[in-house]
Structure formats: C-alpha cells, structure tokens
Sequence to fold (153 residues):
Amino acid sequence: MHLPSFIWLWKIAAWSMGLSLLAYLLLAVTGIWMWQARTSQTLPSFPGFPVSREGVRSLHYTMGISMVSLVLLLLAIGIIGTLGHFGSLGHSSHLIAGLIVVFLVLLSAVSATQISPRRPWVRTLHITVNIILCTAFAWVSWTGWTVVQKYLP
Fold:
C-alpha cells in the first residue's frame, strides 16, 4: 500500500492518544467518585454543578466507551501506517506495547460490564487491570514517541 504522506496519520494518532489519556484520567476520577459514593453514601459536590450517582456512572461509561473507541482507532492507524510504510508489522516494541494496551482496555471494558453484587471479584479485577493500564499507557507513549522520532525530518 502506498500512502504519499503519513503526517496526517500521525496527527490523528497524536490526537487519539492524547484523548485516550484524557479519557483514562476522567475514568480514574469518576471511578473514585463512584467508590466514594458506594463507601460513604455521598458524592463530592461542586458549586453550581450538582453531581448524582447516575450522572457519574453515565459519565464513567461514556468515557469508557470513548477510550475503547480511541484505542481501537489507534490500533487501526498503527497497522495501516506500519504496513503502508514497511509492508509488514513488527519493526519495534511499540507493536507489543500497543497490543498489550488494546488487550488491557478490552479486558477492562468487558470486566466493567460484569460487575455486580454477585461477583464482587470482578470489580477488583477491573480496578487492578486499570492500575496496570497506567503503566502500559506510559510504555506505549514512550515507544510511540521513539517511533515518531524515526520518521520526523
């Protein structure tokens, strides 16, 4: 596949990665809010911004769906860009880091849909996966930066 310029692809990837990290941060904040609501029966309030349990849960799910979508977009961009430039995959550790992030994000999303009072261990799995995901995001960001440096003039 011949793509004349990859700069547009890099821009989409950079925005997608930045937005993925923002979604991850918002997921952490709303997750902490949900934990606080469950353990203390109250939510933090902000002047002029009423916060409800349903609103926080809805925002958490919306951010989760957004992060899954952005990570899958990044996977597609990585595959298209690498195949277009090299003709094959596997030229750096960025592929491994990216696949691990995709796996962890999908595992987190699936586990989120399975959380219930009958399966309290799933919540622990969900939280543990998301803590590990923080390290994986750092790794994929670093390896991605090194890949981009190879292409920039």
User: Anything to note?
Assistant: The mean pLDDT is 86. The radius of gyration is 18 Å. The chain is about 80% helix and 0% strand.
